[in-house]
Every structure is written in C-alpha cells, then in structure tokens.
Amino acid sequence: MSEDLLQLYPATGTRALEGLYLGHDLQARPGRDGVFVYSNFITSLDGRIALPGPGRNSHQVPPAIANRRDWRLFQELAAQADLLLTSARFFRQSADAEHQAHLPIGPQADYDDLRAWRVARGLKPQPDIAVFSVSLDIPLPAINHYADRKVFILTGEGADRHRVRRIQDGSHARMLPCGNGTRVDGRRLRTVLREQGYHCVYAIAGPSVLHTLAAGEALDRLYLTTVHKLLGGTRFDTLSWGPVLEPPPALPLRELYLDRAAPPGAGQTLAVYGD
After folding, report:
1. How sure is the predictor about 53, in pLDDT bands with cuts at 50, 70 and 90?
2. Domain residues of the chain, as ranges?
3. How confident is the model at residue 2 (pLDDT cuts 50, 70, 90)?
4. Which end of the chain has fewer CB atoms surrounding its CB within 10 Å, N or C?
5. Reading across the β-sheet that carries 200-203, which strands appear in turn?
6. What DSSP line would sit under the chain, residue for residue?
7. pLDDT tens-digit profile of 206-247?
C-alpha cells in the first residue's frame, strides 16, 4: 500500500493511504449532542454498492470494486468506533456462511497498529454492536458469536413480543426500543445511544439503515469510495433506500482524494462529506 494518494480538496498534494482516516481522530470530536455518527460505503460510478452474488441468496459488495486499499480505510474507521451499527441481514448472512467478513476490527497482522491505537486511548479491544431489526429474525448463534462484546438490538416499541423474548432468553443481547411501531427513529436513536454512553458510532449497514439515519437527521459524516467502473445490472443496492427525503439532508464535501493504485486500470476517489 505504498503508493500515495493525490489530495484534490481542500488543498492539493500527496498523502499516505495508511493513517488517512485514522488521522481524523473521531474520538476527539465532540458531536452535536455528545454523539458522532458516521458511515462508509464503496460504490461504482453507476451507484452500485451491492449486487447478487453467484450462488448466493443475498447481495454482496461486487468483487469488481472491492479492494484492499478501501478495506484498510474501512478498518481505520472501525478502529475509532465505540459502537458499530449493523443490520439483522448481516447476522442472517453469517448464519448462512454468506457474510463477507466478521465485524471489525480484523484479526490480521495488517491491523495490529489499529488495535494498538485503541489500547493507547483506553478503548475496548473491539467496538460494541447494535443491530437494526424490524422483523427480529436474527439467528441466535450469530449473536452469541460475539459473546465478548455488548450487543444491542435496535427496534421499535411495537416489536413482536415473542421474538423479543426469544432473543432475550437465547442470547446476551439487550433490546433498545428507539421508536414507535416496529421501526427505529433516527432522532430517538441518538438520544438512546447517548444515554448508553456511546460517542463514536460507525454505521456499517446497508441502504435502509442509511435512509433511517438521514431521515432522522442522525448522520454526521459520510465516507464514500467511488471506484471508476460501470457495473450495470437490474438488481442492485444503492446508498439509500426508502421514501423521498424531505428536506434532503445536505452533506458538504470536506475532503477529496484520488487513489490511482486500486483497482488496477481504474482507480478510485475517496470523499468525505458532512461535519
């Protein structure tokens, strides 16, 4: 990962890839209300973040755009989190052996420096986990795989009581109601997470969760890697899914970089939007 990035905005010059996002030191940011919520996606030029995988029941990040340099930055963002926001779909994929990775931070030697960074700041070895779910269709073994971390299930106050009891009786996960009905409300979410003592919250779920955060004015920053490839397809996921956002949230550009090293022959831009 030795090839440097070209910084395009707000200044110009070159920057090393490793340490780029870690240098943002999100733990030091105060947040609007003591909570700082950020998310991260990788997309193609035509807006595809996931496509059906061959022989799989669910969508995955297309191999044509996935790359180690982007994954390094994904891990740097995870290293700064107190809490990971993910989805029930990840846990269902895990139970079906379809998930793409365990929840970060990865155990590989490449990320030793990130684990050391957390230790130096007095953080837990791994971030805790919060799972968005309407259906509460979450395989219990997939939850209990993370017995070394706190796990919360985020749902609405009208969630199915039998499924709530099943999770409570069969796992160490705690239920956190964050809205009326069965869905999470982004505004309530920030309040609930602050009450639980969380500051840096990293959303690594899909388009429905990002839409919930945007609709509830709960998203502070978006990190977006755009790979310079066109993928096409008629079945795909894009960044956000749900009703039209009114008013549309504004996320001004903060930083922009050109990475010419990956993927080979295409390159990618790394953008940071929001606070």
Report:
1. confident
2. 5-274
3. confident
4. N
5. 13-15, 5-9, 253-259, 268-274, 221-227, 36-44, 200-203, 83-87, 128-132, 151-155, 174-177
6. --SPEEEEESS-EEE-STTTTGGG-GGG---TTS-EEEEEEEEETT--SBEEPTT-SSEE--TTT--HHHHHHHHHHHHT-SEEEEEHHHHHHHHTT--SSPSSSP-SGGGHHHHHHHHHTT--SS-EEEEE-SS----HHHHHTTTTS-EEEEE-TT--HHHHHHHHHHSS-EEEE-SSTTS--HHHHHHHHHHTT--EEEE---HHHHHHHHHTT---EEEEEEES-----SS-B-S--SSPPSSPPP--EEEEEEE-SSSTTT-EEEEEEE-
7. 999 999 999 999 999 999 999 999 999 999 999 999 999 999
What does residue 242 show for φ and ψ, rounded to 5 degrees? 155, -175
* Alpha carbon distance 245, 114 (integer Å): 36
B/e letters for 246-269, b = 16+ CB within 10 Å, e = fewer, are eeebebeebbbbebebbbeebbbb
* Pair 183, 234: CB distance under 8 Å: no
What was the pLDDT predicted at 56?
A: 63
Say how far apart CA 65 and CA 48 lie, in whole Å. Answer: 9
Give residue-wise pLDDT tens across range 101-129: 579 999 999 999 999 999 999 999 999 99
CATH architecture, range 5-274:
3-Layer(aba) Sandwich (3.40)
Q: Is the peptide bond before 104 cis (omega within 30 degrees of 0)?
A: no
